[in-house]
Write a structure and sequence with these properties.
single chain; 5-stranded parallel β-sheet; binds zinc ion
Length: 354
């Protein structure tokens, strides 16, 4: 090939538009370790016999979103390959896995500044306005047939007025209409809402299941599996997060903080936690991960102290660790209120010193 040709080809490729990202990159994932109760919910969903209101309950990272998506696919997948499960391969299943299905209405609060925030939406709450908009959507016919599904991400953040408004839809949902609420704190739902919905608890995974998944997904980190599984407490989401490079860095910060009690520097530590993080949403994720690792390390140390005492009172008091555990939980609640991560971390670490 002549040099001229090569040059021309280069110029052409430089001016060409970059390849568009594949929009349907994700495949539907079947939740692991959810037992027979989940299977009977799935069968009900395949037959469109799911309750019209269902809460999917579980801690952060427990896999609520995976369960919710799979149930949604069970409702909407038109394939007759399997009468008890969604096929996981058809166009509908793929649309659902990529949050692109026109009959699935997702309601959630904006995650950060980059998302559209109007005076009718809020960082803190899912608002009345959003529920009203959803109700209007649900007036229309399903586009792809079978059913319509409204999913609430962090449904425990529904404003009280919004929950009251939702009651109407829970009482008269319309034909083949299903409301799925993903919640970590069901006590935030009004009793009137709770009495009209059924609950599906996402089960914590056994250490063995988590180990198997880690083996498949991050085999390079096998020497950290004990640490990761110990901290994950049955949550695959948290286990995978704990396997990232950032988490390793955060874990080092946690140990540094706990072991060098002479050199406590809250401001520097808070900054080190957030170093290199660009978006506000990711700042919150990093702060939450740090608090979570701090808590799991504190718990581990408390347990070690108690078990070394062999039934008698431990030689050393568990204070201040138990108070510290409480304070990290409070800090996590502050993050949920969208207080800036650096402020929350610094305040928490200053409190741990007092
Ligand atoms: Zn399918």
């Amino acid at each position: 090939m002549s040099k001229k040709w090569v040059k021309q080809a280069r110029r052409k490729s430089a001016s060409a538009k970059p390849e568009p990202e594949p929009r349907m990159a994700k495949r539907l994932v079947r939740p692991v370790g959810q037992g027979t109760a989940f299977e009977s919910w799935l069968r009900a969903a395949r037959r469109l016999q799911l309750p019209h209101g269902l809460v999917i309950e579980g801690a952060r990272g427990a896999g609520k979103t995976t369960v919710l998506q799979y149930l949604t696919a069970a409702l909407l997948c038109p394939s007759d390959l399997d009468e008890d499960e969604p096929c996981g391969m058809c166009r509908i299943c793929t649309l659902i896995a990529n949050d692109l299905h026109p009959d699935v209405h997702v309601v959630r609060r904006p995650r950060d500044d980059s998302e559209f925030v109007t005076k009718e939406t809020s960082f803190h709450r899912i608002t009345v306005h959003q529920v009203r908009a959803l109700q209007q959507e649900l007036q229309r016919h399903a586009i792809e047939g079978r059913a319509r599904v409204a999913t609430f991400v962090e449904g425990d953040h529904l404003q009280e007025d919004a929950q009251n408004m939702l009651l109407k839809t829970l009482e008269e949902p319309g034909e083949a209409t299903f409301l799925l609420l993903e919640v970590a704190r069901p006590e935030h739902l009004l009793p009137t809402v709770r009495s009209r919905i059924q609950r599906l608890r996402v089960l914590p995974l056994t250490d063995e299941v988590i180990r198997r998944e880690l083996d498949e997904k991050i085999p390079g980190q096998v020497n950290r599996f004990d640490d990761i599984v110990g901290a994950a407490q049955g949550s695959l989401g948290l286990a995978l997060e704990a396997g990232t490079e950032r988490a390793v860095h955060l874990h080092d910060l946690v140990r540094g903080w706990l072991d060098q009690t002479q050199e406590l520097r809250p401001f520097a530590t808070a900054r080190a936690v957030l170093q290199g993080v660009e978006e506000r949403r990711h700042e919150n994720d990093a702060a939450r991960m740090f608090l979570w690792l701090l808590r799991s390390e504190l718990r581990r140390r408390c347990d070690a102290l108690v078990s070394s005492a062999e039934g008698s009172y431990p030689a050393m008091s568990l204070e201040p660790w138990t108070t510290w555990l409480e304070r990290t939980l409070q800090a996590e609640r502050d993050l949920e209120l969208m207080i800036p991560a650096e402020q929350v971390l610094t305040a928490c670490l200053v409190q741990l010193m007092s």
